Amino acid sequence: MNEEPSSKDAASYAADFIVFAEVLEVRRLLPRDADPFSLVIRGHILLEHALIELLRDALPYSEELKSRLSFQHRVELNIATGLLTPDYGPFLEYVGDLRNRYAHNLRFELTAADEAALVGRLPPFVRELLSSYKPVPQFPEGLRRAILSTYLAIEGARKLLRDDEGRLGVVSKSRIRAMLEAAYAVTAGELSGEMSPSRGSSK
């Protein structure tokens, strides 16, 4: 599982990955016209679902996790077991923080500054991928893209969790990135070119 993927390999995974990660359905749940409140609440639910599924597929006795785990506990457990790298932590924790602000403060309104703070906490390889897509999004589109792409990255890790013989292994970021790029390319037409790679971006 440590081999670097070719563009052909990534493309061959893309269609299957779109079904596996329910890419089109998830994009419909996070529509381009969604308000910040909906993006944070729905995004939090989607990310927590992805964390749960990654643990369920990776741990041999995941059903023994009988205690109710918080979102933060799920983040920490995925990172502590090596299923996700530590650079996912700041982003996921900030999403949890934004969700809690909405839950505990009726007057809270998310701003472009909050969006920028969230995007700045993205795992570097996800942030680099997003920066290759133009035009630069206006608030709150950056929030939506950040949540969507991180969800897809976690789902990519889950799909590539085991090799062809079912052996658990480490998933390289380059393989996940290649799969995400291929998935964006395949869905571009169906989504009316929602995200178009800028000229000169690496593929």
Structural class: mainly alpha
Report strand order across the widest sheet: 1-2
The number of domains is 1
Point out poorly predicted stretches: 189-193, 195-203
Mean of residue pLDDT values: 81
Helix percent band:
55-70%
Largest sheet features: 2 strands, antiparallel
Helix-strand topology string: HHHHHHHEHHE
Cα-based radius of gyration, to the nearest Å: 17 Å
Q: What best-fitting shape do the alpha-carbon axes yield? A: globular
The counted number of beta strands is: 2
What is the overall number of helices? 9
Strand content: under 5%
Report how far apart the termini are.
20 Å
Q: Can you put this structure into words, describing what you see?
A:
- The model is unreliable at 189-193 and 195-203 (pLDDT under 50).
- The protein has one domain (7-191).
- It has helices spanning 7-20, 23-29, 36-58, 71-80, 89-104, 112-119, 124-131, 141-159, 173-187; strands spanning 133-134, 196-197.
- It has a two-stranded antiparallel ribbon with strand order 1-2.
- It is globular.
- By secondary structure, it is mainly α.
Short description:
It contains 9 helices and 2 strands. The protein is mostly helical. It is globular and about 45 Å long.
Name the descriptors.
203 residues; mainly alpha; two-stranded antiparallel sheet; 2 strands
Topology:
Layout: H1 7-20, H2 23-29, H3 36-58, H4 71-80, H5 89-104, H6 112-119, H7 124-131, E1 133-134, H8 141-159, H9 173-187, E2 196-197
Antiparallel strand pairs: 1-2
